[in-house]
Amino acid sequence: MNGHLLNIVGVGPGDPDLITLKAVKALRESDFIFYPRVLYSNNNFALDILKGNMLDIQDSKLIPLGIEMKKNYNLNKTLYDENALKILQKLKANYCCSYITIGDPAFYSTYSELYKSLKQLAARCNIALNINIISGISSFNYLLSLIKEPYAVKKSSVLINVPIGKTDEELESEINFIMSSKDKPSMLIYMKAGNNIYDILRIYKKMFYDYFKDGKLKFYILEKSVLDDNINLEFLESVNDKVYDYFSILAVIFI
Predict the structure, then answer these.
(1) What is the CATH number of domain 140-254?
(2) Which of 23, 24, 65, 180 has the highest CB neighbour number within 10 Å of its CB?
(3) Model's pTM, two decimal places?
């Protein structure tokens, strides 16, 4: 492919100002920029961040790649195969391309499934993939900066996990694992918690309600660059009508 790269660009945790200079340079030098377009949704976070930076990217350079976040029709394998073909066609024509994604591309992002399809298709076509990953500022670090309290200190324990698909028993086991640490503070960070947030909070209400009442347990939710630190287990059922986005992060701190 004459050295032309496929850049996989993390565009940050949701705040347009947090895109890196390295990402901006790569995107400006790209002939085409692919972005994830969520089916059945107005969710175009990655594209919104790109345009929010006023990079003066021409629309003709932007190519949407359909993905299915909720798997309503189980189309994702077909979609990712089609997306891989679109990218590979541009690379074979010696274009420099980038694919943008929220946060860190190497941490449970749309890139993981896209990579599988790209790798399989490239092998069939006898093409060597030349991929350059440009990590964005992680939403985990961004969350800590908004909390402002230095909870990650010497001897503290931090467990970062993805709760999607886990049973209550598995989640409780992870909580007990962190609680076995004798030093506090300790933290559990639930990445892309979204629809699981209320179920997770109910587990804490069942297991550690007394900790919460005594001020030894705190909750923070980061959604679309906005921090919510007003989570009250006593009124959990009354706020159940709030719907959290897929990208929301739940941080649980044992003081």
Answers:
(1) 3.30.950.10
(2) 23
(3) 0.85
Name the residue type at position 114: L
Encoded tokens for 69: 């976040």
Pairwise CA distance, residues 44 & 39, whole Å:
10
Confidence of residue 252 (pLDDT cuts 50, 70, 90): very high
Cα distance between residue 215 and residue 152, in whole Å: 18
The token duo for 1 is 């492919």
Domain ranges of the chain: 6-137, 140-254
How far apart (Å, rounded) are the C-alpha atoms in residues 83 and 63? 10
pLDDT at position 4 is: 65
How many CB atoms within 10 Å of residue 1?
A: 17
Among 159, 154, 33, which Cα is nearest to 99's?
33
User: What was the pLDDT predicted at 1?
Assistant: 40
- Spatial strand order in the sheet of 62-67: 62-67, 32-38, 97-101, 6-10, 131-134
